C-alpha cells in the first residue's frame, strides 16, 4: 500500500492542472461530471479540492478521518462547516485574491442598474412603450454621492477604487477599523454602523456570512436608510433579511436594490420577484472565464502549499503550530 497522500478533487479538471499534484501523491476525481457522491471521491483522502456547490459538514468529515486540508474554489466558505473542520484539525483555504475585481465590477454594475433603472428601461423599450410622449424613467444619481461599504475587505477595497472614478465620497464600517494609512491609501472614511446606514446613498454589503452577520441588515437597519438610498448585496445571502428588504422596497422606504445573492438561493423570496425596483443576478459576481481560471489556479496553489508543508496564505482557520498537516 502506497504511503503517498491521497488528493481528492470533486470535479473533473484538465490534466495540466494535475501534474504538480502527482509529484506529491495519488489524485482521485470522479469519472463523470457532477452530480457525484462527494464521499465516494473523498473517502480516505488526505487533501481535497471542492467547489462552492459542495457541502462539507460534520457527517462527511467524520467519514473522512484522514483529511488534513480542504481547498475550495471560492472566496466564500459558508458551504463548509469551518468550526467542525477546526475541531478535527482540518485546515480550510479559499480563493480571496482571484475574485475581488470581478465581484466589485458586478456590485458596481448592480448599483448602476438599480439606480438608473436600466432593467426597467430595457423592458420598457422592448414592450414598445418608448414614444415621444412617454414619461422618462427617472432614477437616482450615482456620481458625487456617498457610498457606504459594509465590510471593507478585498472586494470592498476594489469597490472603493471604482467609486473614486465616479467622484463618490466613500465611507465604510468594519468591526475593526483600518489603520489610518490604509484609509488614506484607499480614500475612505470610517463611520459607525448607524451613521453609515443613515448617511449612505449607496449601501454596498460585502460582509461575510456567519452567525454574527445573519440579518445584519434587517428591518431596523433598513428603517435608518434614506428613502432615496440603493442597497446592493454582492456578498452572501442571509446577511440581508430579504423579507424585510422586500417590504422596504414595496413601501418606498428605500429606492431600489441590486442583489447578486439571496437567502436560500437559488430560491428567491417571492416578494422580491414581483418588484420592479430590484435587480437580481444568480450569484454570478465572479462568473467570468478569466476569474474562474484564476480561482482554480489559486485553489490548486493552496493544495500544493499544503502538500509541501509550507505556510498557507489563504487559510481561514489557522491551527496551532503543534497541529500536523504535512
Biggest sheet, spatial arrangement of strands: 8-7-6-9-10-11-12
CATH class of the largest domain: Alpha Beta
Per DSSP E runs of 2 or more residues, the count of β-strands stands at: 12
* CATH homologous superfamily assignment of the largest domain: NAD(P)-binding Rossmann-like Domain
Number of helices: 13
Low-confidence stretches: 321-326
Amino- and carboxy-terminal Cα gap: 19 Å
Radius of gyration: 22 Å
Question: Which sheet architecture does the biggest sheet show?
Answer: 7 strands, parallel
Order of SSEs: EHEHEHEHEHHEHEHEHEHEHEHEH
Give the CATH topology of the largest domain.
Answer: Rossmann fold
* Fraction in beta strands: 5-15%
Mean pLDDT rating: 93
Query: What is the count of distinct domains?
Result: 2
Domain D-isomer specific 2-hydroxyacid dehydrogenase catalytic: 13-317
Family: Belongs to the D-isomer specific 2-hydroxyacid dehydrogenase family.
Organism: Pseudomonas schmalbachii
Keywords: NAD, Oxidoreductase
Amino acid at each position: 500500500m502506497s504511503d503517498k497522500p491521497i488528493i481528492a478533487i470533486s470535479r473533473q479538471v484538465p490534466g495540466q492542472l494535475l501534474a504538480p499534484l502527482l509529484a506529491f501523491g495519488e489524485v482521485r476525481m470522479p469519472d463523470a461530471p457532477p452530480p457525484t457522491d462527494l464521499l465516494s471521491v473523498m473517502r480516505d483522502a488526505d487533501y481535497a479540492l471542492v467547489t462552492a456547490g459542495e457541502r462539507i459538514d460534520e457527517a462527511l468529515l467524520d467519514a473522512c478521518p484522514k483529511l488534513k486540508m480542504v481547498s475550495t474554489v471560492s472566496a466564500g466558505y459558508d458551504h463548509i462547516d469551518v468550526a467542525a473542520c477546526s475541531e478535527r484539525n482540518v485546515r480550510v483555504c479559499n480563493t480571496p485574491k482571484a475574485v475581488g475585481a470581478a465581484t466589485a465590477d458586478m456590485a458596481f454594475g448592480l448599483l448602476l442598474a438599480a439606480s438608473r433603472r436600466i432593467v426597467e428601461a430595457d423592458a420598457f423599450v422592448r414592450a414598445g412603450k418608448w414614444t415621444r410622449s412617454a414619461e422618462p424613467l427617472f432614477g437616482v444619481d450615482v456620481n458625487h454621492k456617498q457610498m457606504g461599504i459594509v465590510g471593507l475587505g478585498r472586494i470592498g477595497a476594489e469597490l472603493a477604487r471604482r467609486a473614486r472614478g465616479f467622484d463618490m465620497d466613500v465611507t465604510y464600517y468594519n468591526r475593526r477599523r483600518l489603520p489610518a494609512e490604509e484609509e488614506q491609501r484607499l480614500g475612505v472614511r470610517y463611520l459607525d454602523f448607524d451613521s453609515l446606514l443613515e448617511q449612505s446613498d449607496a449601501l454596498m454589503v460585502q460582509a461575510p456570512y456567519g452567525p454574527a452577520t445573519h440579518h445584519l441588515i434587517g428591518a431596523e437597519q433598513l428603517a435608518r436608510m434614506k428613502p432615496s438610498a440603493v442597497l446592493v448585496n454582492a456578498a452572501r445571502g442571509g446577511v440581508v433579511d430579504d423579507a424585510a428588504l422586500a417590504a422596504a422596497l414595496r413601501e418606498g422606504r428605500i429606492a431600489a436594490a441590486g442583489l447578486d445573492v439571496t437567502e436560500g438561493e437559488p430560491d428567491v423570496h417571492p416578494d422580491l420577484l414581483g418588484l420592479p425596483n430590484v435587480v437580481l443576478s444568480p450569484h454570478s459576481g465572479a462568473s467570468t472565464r478569466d476569474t474562474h481560471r484564476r480561482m482554480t489556479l489559486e485553489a490548486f496553489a493552496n493544495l500544493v502549499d499544503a502538500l509541501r508543508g509550507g505556510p498557507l496564505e489563504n487559510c481561514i482557520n489557522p491551527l496551532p503550530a503543534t497541529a500536523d498537516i504535512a
